[in-house]
Design goal:
The structure is a single chain. It is built from 18 helices and 20 strands. It has 526 residues and is of the alpha+beta class. It folds into 3 domains: 134 residues, 3-Layer(bba) Sandwich (FAD/NAD(P)-binding domain), CATH 3.50.50.60; 139 residues, Polyamine Oxidase, Chain A, domain 2; 98 residues. It has a 4-stranded parallel β-sheet with strand order 4-3-12-20, with helices on one face. Strands 8-7-15-16 form a 4-stranded mixed β-sheet, with helices on one face.
C-alpha cells in the first residue's frame, strides 16, 4: 500500500515500458520498446481477469470497407502511445485533445518557463519546476534515483527515517493515552511491516502455486475491502486506522479492494525506492518527446462531446466547436469521469459498459508546489535537522507529505522548487477545497508553511522569508481529468473492469487508459 506519487494514463493490455534511451535522452529517437518481466505478469493478469470474470456477451467486429483511419481521443500517455503503435503499423490516425497542452496526467509546472527554456541541464534555472502529476518510474534497473533521509511527524512527534515508525515511537500507545495497546505488535513494529505480513499469505499463493492459482484464490475475496480483511485477521479498528495513517491516505483502507492491495504488493514489492527513476527537466519531456516522433501531431482544443455510430459502420465525433470528424475506429483514452459526459447514446453500449464508466472509483489527489530562495532542506537548520537530498517526509497533518527534489543536487545555487504538500483520498478532497479563490489560497499557503515548518524542524518565519512563489493543483477540480486516478473498490475487478476491456459498437469503439491498466495510477501500467 505505498501509493505515493501517482503517474499518468496507461494503455490497456499493452504492458511495455519505453526504452531506457528514450527516457534519458529526449526527444525520443526510437520507438523500440522493451518488454519487462513485470509486463508479462500484467498481461497474464489481464487475460485471467477476462477468463474468470462474468461474460457480457460476444462482440462483433465489422470489416473495414475503405482506408482505415483511427480517431484517438486524449493526448495523454495512453493516447500518444496508441498513436505511436498505429504509426509503426502504417495505420492512419488523428489525436484529439480537449485542452491546450499534451500530456494528460503528465504535467510539469515551471515557475519561470522563460528561464527554463534558456537553461540547460546543470544550470540553476533548469530545476525551477515540479511535476504536478506523474513524477517517477518504479523498479527500473537502468537508472537510480537519489533517495535521501525522511522525516515522519505524527502525534506531534518528529522522527528521522532511521528511527522505526512504531506506535511506541510516536507515543500513541494506550499508556500514552493513544489507541494502540502496549502489547500490540504495532507498538514495536513499523506499520508497513505489519501490513505486509498481514497480506503475505495471499501473496504467497502467487509465488508458490503460480498466477492462475493465486488469482483464483484472490477472487474469493474480491468483494472485500482491505479494512474488512484486516479486521477478519483479528486486527482492531484502531490497528487498521494506525496502519492507514502511516502507509496510505485517510479512508483508503475502506475504499480499496483487497484484490487491488494484494496485487500491488505482489507485483511491485520488488521495486525498492532506490531503483525508482525520474526525468531530469520534468516528466513532460517524455510526452513532448513522444509527440515529436509522431507524423500526425495532436490537435489541441478539440473537446469531443458526442460519438455517433452510423449504418456504414463508421463513428463520427462531434467537437464542441462544431467540427465533425469521421473514423473507422475510435480509441477513447480519456478518464472515465470525462467520458461519462460524452453523448454515446447511438453506440448502443450495453449496460455493463455504461455502468462501469459511471461506477469505477476515481481518487482525488492534489499538490502544492513551492519555490524558495535556497534549498534549505539540504542544509541542516538545527541540531536535530540532519538535512537530506531527495525523498519524502510524512505526517498526520493536513498536508500529509512533502517531496524533496532529487534533481539539481550537484548544481550550485540550483533553483529551490519542491512539493510542499502531496495528498490523495479524503486528505486531498479536504485540502483542495481551499485551492480556488485568492483568499483561500492565501490561507492555505499559511497553513502549508506552518505544517511544513513543523515537519522539517524549522521556523515558520524562516520559511515565510524563504518563499518565492506557490502553485496549487487539484485533479478533481479540472474538467479534463475529473479525478486523479482509478482505484478499484470491492468487487470491481470481477464486475466492472471486464466490460470495458471489450470494444463497443461492432468492435469499433475501444477503451484505453489508466483505469484499464492492471495497476492504476502509473504510466503504461506501472
Amino acid at each position: 500500500m505505498r501509493r505515493s506519487l501517482f503517474s499518468a494514463s496507461c494503455f490497456s493490455l499493452l504492458s511495455v515500458f519505453v526504452s531506457a534511451s528514450a527516457l534519458t535522452t529526449l526527444p525520443l529517437k526510437s520507438r523500440d520498446c522493451t518488454c519487462s518481466s513485470a509486463g508479462a505478469t500484467r498481461e497474464s493478469f489481464l487475460l485471467q481477469i477476462l477468463t474468470n470474470s462474468p461474460e457480457y456477451g460476444i462482440f462483433e467486429v465489422a470489416p473495414s470497407t475503405g482506408p482505415l483511419t483511427v480517431g484517438i481521443i486524449g493526448a495523454g500517455a495512453a493516447g500518444l502511445y496508441a498513436a505511436m503503435i498505429l504509426e509503426s503499423l502504417g495505420i492512419d490516425y488523428e489525436v484529439l485533445e480537449s485542452s491546450q497542452r499534451i500530456g494528460g496526467r503528465i504535467f510539469t509546472y515551471r515557475f519561470d518557463e522563460a528561464t527554463w527554456k534558456k537553461s540547460k541541464p546543470g544550470e540553476p534555472g533548469y530545476y525551477n519546476y515540479y511535476d504536478v502529476g506523474a513524477m517517477r518510474f518504479p523498479g527500473m534497473p537502468w537508472m537510480h534515483r537519489v533517495i535521501g533521509g525522511e522525516y515522519r511527524l505524527y502525534n506531534n512527534r518528529l522522527l528521522y527515517n532511521q528511527d522505526a515508525p512504531t506506535a511506541d515511537a510516536f507515543d500513541v500507545e494506550t499508556s500514552d493515552g493513544g489507541p494502540i495497546r502496549n502489547d500490540d505488535k504495532l507498538a514495536t513494529t513499523a506499520a508497513g511491516v505489519v501490513l505486509d505480513e498481514a497480506l503475505q499469505d495471499l501473496i504467497d499463493v502467487f509465488s508458490t502455486s503460480g498466477f492462475d492459482a493465486g488469482f483464483d484464490h484472490l477472487m474469493q475475496y474480491d468483494g472485500v475491502s482491505l479494512r474488512q480483511y484486516l479486521l477478519s485477521k483479528n486486527y482492531t479498528t484502531q490497528d487498521v486506522d494506525w496502519m492507514e495513517t502511516l502507509t496510505d491516505a485517510t479512508t483508503h483502507m475502506d475504499t480499496y479492494s483487497l484484490s487491488q492491495a494484494v496485487l500491488e504488493q505482489w507485483i511491485f514489492n520488488s521495486a525498492p525506492l532506490d531503483s525508482w527513476t525520474a526525468i531530469e527537466g520534468g516528466m513532460d519531456r517524455l510526452t513532448h518527446g513522444m509527440t515529436q516522433t509522431l507524423k500526425n501531431k495532436p490537435i489541441l482544443g478539440k473537446r469531443v462531446t458526442t460519438l455517433m455510430g452510423y449504418p456504414n459502420k463508421t463513428v463520427t465525433v462531434a467537437i464542441s466547436d462544431g467540427d465533425l470528424r469521421t473514423y473507422a475506429h475510435i480509441i477513447n483514452t480519456v478518464p472515465l469521469g470525462v467520458m461519462q459526459n460524452m453523448d454515446m447514446s447511438t453506440l448502443d453500449l450495453d449496460y455493463n459498459k455504461t455502468f462501469a464508466i459511471r461506477k469505477l472509483q476515481y481518487d482525488p489527489a492534489g499538490k502544492i508546489g513551492m519555490t524558495f530562495k535556497t534549498r534549505w532542506w539540504e542544509t541542516p537548520q538545527g541540531e536535530s535537522n540532519k538535512g537530506f537530498q531527495g525523498g519524502q517526509s510524512y505526517s498526520d497533518l493536513s498536508i500529509r507529505r512533502c517531496v524533496y527534489p532529487s534533481y539539481g543536487l550537484n548544481t550550485p545555487n540550483a533553483s529551490a522548487a519542491m512539493i510542499a504538500s502531496y495528498t490523495w483520498g479524503q486528505d486531498s478532497a479536504r485540502l483542495g477545497a481551499y485551492y480556488h479563490t485568492d483568499s483561500d489560497r492565501a490561507y492555505i499557503a499559511n497553513v502549508t508553511i506552518r505544517q511544513l515548518a513543523a515537519m522539517n524542524n524549522v521556523t515558520e518565519s524562516f520559511l515565510h522569508e524563504q518563499l518565492v512563489d506557490m502553485h496549487l493543483w487539484d485533479w478533481y477540480a479540472h474538467s479534463d481529468s475529473a479525478g486523479a486516478f482509478a482505484i478499484f473498490g470491492p468487487g470491481e475487478f470481477s464486475t466492472v473492469m471486464p466490460s470495458l476491456m471489450k470494444p463497443g459498437y461492432l468492435g469499433r469503439v475501444h477503451f484505453a487508459g489508466e483505469a484499464l491498466s492492471s495497476r492504476h495510477a502509473w504510466i503504461i501500467g506501472r
